[in-house]
Amino acid sequence: xxxxxxxxxxxxxxxxxxxxxxxxxxxxxxxxxxxxxxxxxxxxxxxxxxxxxxxxxxxxxxxxxxxxxxxxxxxxxxxxxxxxxxxxxxxxxxxxxxxxxxxxxxxxxxxxxxxxxxxxxxxxxxxxxxxxxxxxxxxxxxxxxxxxxxxxxxxxxxxxxxxxxxxxxxxxxxxxxxxxxxxxxxxxxxxxxxxxxxxxxxxxxxxxxxxxxxxxxxxxxxxxxxxxxxxxxxxxxxxxxxxxxxxxxxxxxxxxxxxxxxxxxxxxxxxxxxxxxxxxxxxxxxxxxx
Length: 290
Hints:
- This protein is α+β, with helices and mostly antiparallel strands.
- Helix content is about 35%, strand content about 15%.
- The protein has helices at about 15-25, 25-30, 70-80, 95-110, 110-115, 165-190, 195-200, 270-290; strands spanning about 55, 60, 85-90, 125-130, 145-150, 205-215, 235-240, 245-250, 255, 265-270.
- The strands form three sheets. Strands 2-3-10-7 form a four-stranded mixed β-sheet. Strands 1-9-8 form a three-stranded mixed β-sheet, with no helix packed on it.
């Protein structure tokens, strides 16, 4: 019996990463060029691509409910058990949510020469567009382009924002600041603290607007739009389009989180978890001293 082993020929990965980066057109540029095969820099090892076998319905919390105690308790349980939950009656009109998604789409689908003006790996800039902020450190690049902008506490000048989405980005960000303030008050209460506790820690003062684009992939079994990760902020408020694709690791199993019109997904981030752990430690120390 004869066996054969297929291997990927060695190549200069850094050179290919730089060549891709220097195009300043991202993954969308590859798709626009009509590629039929995923470049090697995006190919994952087979064992790292784990498909979801089922879906999960995250807890849905009605922020318009008059039963505040019930809302607080539901947030507490969801945050402890899953770390994610969904909110409805959050105050953001459906028209604003729809236009926000369209604005992000317009940015990524606009003329490449216009997008290139925003292309940068300097994360300190107020407005940045690139593909994979960690392009040079990942084992395999993600099939994703991203546009982001710091909208608070020091928002950019209006003229600095991309013309195709600036108005809706400003409007949506204003809604997010209000929603963030409410969520932090509810989470504070869920922890048995005063409503303004997390706000006084300035957890709700900063806001980053992030618009991801996952272009159609010719070989989706070889790459991923996002590798396994946690969000490093305090809270992530996720607005999905109707295509979906969000997956979470729940009870050691990858599960889909299907999109629901009008619903926002809330993810407890690393910084908030770290802040809460520190808070608990301080309380324990105070009790020990007393």
